[in-house]
Amino acid sequence: MEHDPTNSQCLLQSALQRDCLPCGHPTSTYVQLRGGSCRELWGYRGIIGHEITHGFDDSGAEFDADGNLQNWWSPADKANFEKATQALAKQYDQYEPVKGIFVNGIFTNGENIADLGGANIAFDALQMYLKDHGDVGKISGFTQNERFFIAWATVWRSPDY
């Protein structure tokens, strides 16, 4: 499957074992409208982490290291993974974004796993960066950690997603 490099939509191609992070993404409205390096740097890194995590979500985990659709898990690991994904789905089932309408945690599990993975990977990277380079303190009244979560919360508002 070819992916147009001017497209700004990122995706994982499990059978090919590759993430598509097209050239058009950094120049998309996502980056242009965000303003502030924290949002561009950490929000974009969260997207990269999100796409990488799809390789290990409830769908991506079905592919082996060569991109073949086959079970490569030990029985114990598979059982633990399924238990964890079921617990996450149950948690998301409780979310009511619109009164009377609840999230279907099983249906959204792949995206939920990828969102959590992407946010965790990028947040860990921010903490390593701050440890190595120091914390500059508040910018516009927000700490670096707060700015990270603002970036993460707004990254999915873009028309590119």
Walk me through the structure.
By secondary structure, the chain is mainly α. The chain is built from 5 helices and 2 strands. A two-stranded antiparallel ribbon has the order 1-2. Strand 1 and strand 2 form a beta hairpin. The protein starts with 10 loop residues before the first strand and ends in a 6-residue tail after the last helix.
Q: Which of globular, elongated, flat, extended, rod-shaped describes the shape?
A: globular
Give the total of beta strands: 2
Radius of gyration: 17 Å
What's the arrangement of strands in the largest beta sheet? 1-2
Largest sheet data: 2 strands, antiparallel
Structural class computed from helices and strand pairing: mainly alpha
What ranges have pLDDT less than 50 throughout 5 or more consecutive residues?
27-36
Q: Give the fraction of residues assigned to helices.
A: 40-55%
String of helices and strands: EEHHHHH
Number of helices: 5
Portion in beta strands: under 5%
Distance between the termini: 20 Å
Overall pLDDT level: 78
Offer a concise description of the structure.
With 161 residues, the protein is mainly alpha-helical.
Main attributes?
two-stranded antiparallel sheet; globular; single chain; mainly alpha; 161 residues
What is the strand and helix layout of this fold?
Blueprint: E1 11-13, E2 18-20, H1 29-34, H2 37-53, H3 75-93, H4 109-133, H5 144-155
Antiparallel strand pairs: 1-2
